[in-house]
Every structure is written in C-alpha cells, then in structure tokens.
Design goal:
mainly beta, 2 domains, two-stranded antiparallel sheet, 6 strands, 8% helix, elongated
C-alpha cells in the first residue's frame, strides 16, 4: 500500500471515507489486487473580531421656524324666538322638538276668581352652524443632528 498523496498536509485535516467504499477497500487490501487511495476532505474554521475603524460625534440643535397652520373652527349659534300664545290649558305641555327647533313651553298661573293654567309663551330655539377657516402663525421646534466622523486614534472633543 502506498502513502497518501504528496503535498497534502494531514495533521490539520479531517479524513472521511464513505460507507460502501470503505468495505470495498478492506476487501481489496486483503486480496492484494488493487491499491486503495483514501479520500480526504478539508474543513475551514472562521473566527471574527471587532476592529474600530472610526468614531462619530453627534450634536443635536433645535431650530425654530415660523409656520402657518390651517384649521376649520365650528361655531354653533343659538337663536331664541319668543312666540306669545296666551291660551288657557289644563296641564303643562312637555318640551318638544319640531323640524330641528326645540320648543320649551313657559306657563304661568293667573289669579282669577278661579285659578287656571295659561300657556303664556313658547321658546323656539333654532341652531345654526357656521364654519370659519382660519390661519394662525405658530412656532414649531425641529431638531436636527450633525454627525462628525473622526479617525479611531483621535479623541472626540
């Protein structure tokens, strides 16, 4: 049997022979007819380490800018209309709403020879909504970052 292939280091390599080939090699060695050459495989081992290649210095600054903001403001205006009724009633009417108008009955007792309930007036309340676009100047602060790169051997100031 001959030695392994020249120029191939064997100390740091792991050698592997596969299943059926190993049985055939054993059989062929005993018969002396053929020569067996082992199959060798190399495996690599990798290591990493951190290396500082530079440093950075970061400063933040606040800038003040004037901007105009837009908004829609909604205002509800209430209109009260007094409607005289002056009619005698048996009991006080309930508050009611008709066509978006809230009606609140106002009653008073009038002293006569007998006491009667008189519907004095109704308050008709109508709501109107008005939208107004406005522009208001406001101060907004924005922050920005300044990055300064330095070499690894320099100290940040």
């Amino acid at each position: 049997m001959s030695s392994p292939v020249p120029d191939q280091p064997s100390a740091n390599l792991s050698s592997q022979e596969t299943g059926p080939d190993r049985e055939d090699a054993t059989r062929l060695r005993t018969t002396g007819v053929e020569e067996v050459i082992p199959i060798v495989e190399e495996k690599a081992h990798l290591e990493k380490r951190e290396v500082t290649t530079g440093k950075v210095r970061v400063h933040t600054r606040v800038d003040v800018v004037q901007e105009t903001v837009r908004a829609s403001l909604e205002e509800e205006i209430v209109e009260v209309t007094r409607v005289p009724i002056n009619r005698e009633i048996d009991h006080a009417p309930e508050v009611r709403t008709e066509n978006g108008v809230t009606i609140i009955p106002v009653v008073e007792e009038v002293l006569v020879v007998e006491k009667r309930l008189v519907l004095k007036e109704e308050l008709h309340i109508r709501r109107n909504v008005r939208t107004e676009d406005v522009e208001i100047p406001v101060e907004l602060r924005k922050q920005r970052a300044e990055v300064e790169h330095t070499r690894p051997d320099e100290e940040p100031s």
